Amino acid sequence: MPDEPNNTIAVAMSGGVDSSTVAAILRSEGHSLVGLTLQLWNQRRLAGHEGMPESVQGRCCSLDDVYDARAVAEQLGIPYYVVNQQERFEADVVKPFVSEYLAGRTPIPCTLCNNHLKFDQLLLTARQIGADRIATGHYARNRFDPERNRWILSRPADHTKDQTYFLFGLTQEQLSRTLFPLGEMQKPAVRQIAQDSGLYVAQKPDSQEICFIPGGDYSTFLKAYLDEQNEPMPDLSGELVTTSGEVIGHHQGIHSFTVGQRKGLGISSPNPLYVLAIHPDSHRVTVGADEDLLSRDLTANRLNWISIASMTEGEEIRITAKIRHRHTPAPATLLGAGDDRVRVVFDEPQRAITPGQATVFYQEDDVVGGGWIL
């Protein structure tokens, strides 16, 4: 059985309605709380630089969000701290993001942040200030399964807000010390509790952008960041080719493409063309018809297991698998491939399986584990 924790809970406060409501719920239940916000990125750092916008308002983890989190903590009468993790965020999230994109892959910085920084640092800071549990506003559920002697991560009651895709890297220790109070709730009910609690963030819009990339303009961010680092933008230009190898155009850099992309190819065609594959060694980008994006299998590595301890080579498990956040989990067979790898074979072909993205495995609502698509 898991250890019995004490009654002090550190609430990860982002300044949004979800984490603010978590604090209000736990406060109303009589828990001793401490509010924590991780300061991850200087939002003014690249503002207005090389095409980056001057305004930095309205993004996840912005200074406005820190202000809102502090105000909610004051309103609830709980201690509040901002923990500066900008150096680690840059080293563990931003630089790997840049490297992956320059290599023609499509990384997910939010998953990297959760897996390698947020939960690890929040638990460490919580213990330093006398709390041994954290609570977050993620839409997910967790429980201890005595039969398997493991903590299980599960999809929330509100599947439209499911965030387990971003949490597949959580360890057993982290799951054992984390509360997800919104796991059984629907989003409208969360806003209603915030309204009833008098929280002025009750109608605050949800953030949709990556905290350090306004507007999702990855290419502009890469150029601005490399320039700030006094690093030249590498020449990633190359040829646009068909599946038969015919050269039909040229591009300015593989970092401007992702698998499944249709717009911005820079060529005209009587039929719609999509990015099918990116070849970092040759800088070639293969394009073709929409049906050419369909594939039945993938290989993943850098695995993390949750409902099971591991998979052996040759072992098979029936699952459903996600290949992106908004992807509906699709029936598949998971095959242990050895050397920290698995192969996923879908029952039906899936569209635009993208190297660099995460794939997460489920059995019903429970997360089996996940990894990174090779």
Q: Would you write up a description of this structure?
A:
- The chain is α/β, with parallel strands linked by helices and 374 residues long.
- The protein has 3 domains: 8-216, HUPs (Rossmann fold), CATH 3.40.50.620; 236-288, Roll (SH3 type barrels); 294-373, Beta Barrel (Elongation Factor Tu (Ef-tu), domain 3), CATH 2.40.30.10.
- It contains 7 helices and 17 strands.
- It has a 6-stranded antiparallel beta barrel.
- The longest helix is centred in the first third of the chain and has 20 residues, at 109-128.
Itemize the secondary structure elements and their pairings.
Layout: E1 8-12, H1 17-28, E2 32-39, H2 63-76, E3 80-84, H3 86-102, H4 109-128, E4 133-135, E5 141-145, E6 150-154, H5 172-176, E7 178-179, H6 187-196, H7 218-228, E8 238-241, E9 247-251, E10 274-279, E11 284-288, E12 294-305, E13 316-322, E14 330-338, E15 341-351, E16 358-363, E17 366-373
Parallel strand pairs: 1-2, 1-4, 2-3, 4-7, 8-11
Antiparallel strand pairs: 5-6, 8-9, 10-11, 12-15, 12-17, 13-14, 13-16, 14-15, 16-17
Helix pairs in contact: 1-2, 1-6, 3-4
